[in-house]
Amino acid sequence: MAIAAAISLSLPPQTRRSSASIAAPFRSTSSLHFDSLRSNFSSLKNPNLRVSASSMSIGTPEKISTASFLDRRESGFLHFVKYHGLGNDFILVDNRDSTEPRVTPEQAVKLCDRNFGIGADGVIFAMPGVNGTDYTMRIFNSDGSEPEMCGNGVRCFARFIAELENLHGKQSFTVHTGAGLIVPEIQEDGKVKVDMGEPILKASDVPTKLPANKDQAAVKADINVDGVTWNVTCVSMGNPHCVTFGNRQSQNLTVDELNLAAIGPKFEHHEMFPARTNTEFVEVFSHEHLKMRVWERGAGATLACGTGACAVVVAAVLEGRAGR
Known about the structure:
Number of helices: 5
Family: Belongs to the diaminopimelate epimerase family.
Pathway: Amino-acid biosynthesis; L-lysine biosynthesis via DAP pathway; DL-2,6-diaminopimelate from LL-2,6-diaminopimelate: step 1/1
Enzyme class: isomerase
Largest sheet: 9 strands, mixed
Order of helices and strands: EEEEHEEHEEHEEEEEEEEHEEEH
Helix content: 10-25%
Catalytic activity: (2S,6S)-2,6-diaminopimelate = meso-2,6-diaminopimelate
CATH topology of the largest domain: Diaminopimelate Epimerase, Chain A, domain 1
GO cellular component, one term: chloroplast
Mean pLDDT: 83
Strand order of the largest sheet: 4-1-3-5-6-7-8-10-11
């Protein structure tokens, strides 16, 4: 399906921003399929984002050419493709001709709005590589903040690059991110595999102010959130995660009963997490079956989180709730 809409999104010269470089070699792997939705938006003079019924048309043309969306470069248009990985959805922007994002963090917030914008968990920019890498990936979350990395996002990024570069079959390339070097691999069947690397467990490097209690790591540590003492394990997969399987009142969570919108922000902004944190609430069915709900730093409740899934497995092994 093609979506054509007229929105008032001005694209001024960009303010220089530098991406953080955090050394974080990864080792976990996973793969999934992606769906894409190609769209193009025009820029009007009004600096506020507006989409109205009179300016939006949705239809399915008889013929849709991939190149027609990705190759056109009309002045004043922001071209994008929308992908999702397990419902974790992103707006992908071809930014290969500039080291500065085409939209500002404030504009990204408006684009991600699910009522008045395109709707997404974040905006991802495909940018020129640095330090010998093929590409650079930067992300603005739906709240305008910039995370170090995103597991589902980098897999969407890989499929986007394959489409932009007209790549076919098994492919791999190097991507510079705020969490270090990532090498996604596109398989013959179109799935994307990413080596997520070794987790960072040292509490001060996650980072968390919770005291280390196991080989410099915070494992099953107590944290008071809104008057309730939770047991948490802190893991970094290049970005910070706080994983909990329960609290003193309920050692075994039933995650579907959680009011995620109420409890999630209290973990994210807790004083024990100086860089804020992603939080995974996990229900254990067996050593081979875990169910998680996630509150993502900067994006809120999302349907999936790639780095979060890896952090959950690491925490489950450390707490003896799952085997390697």
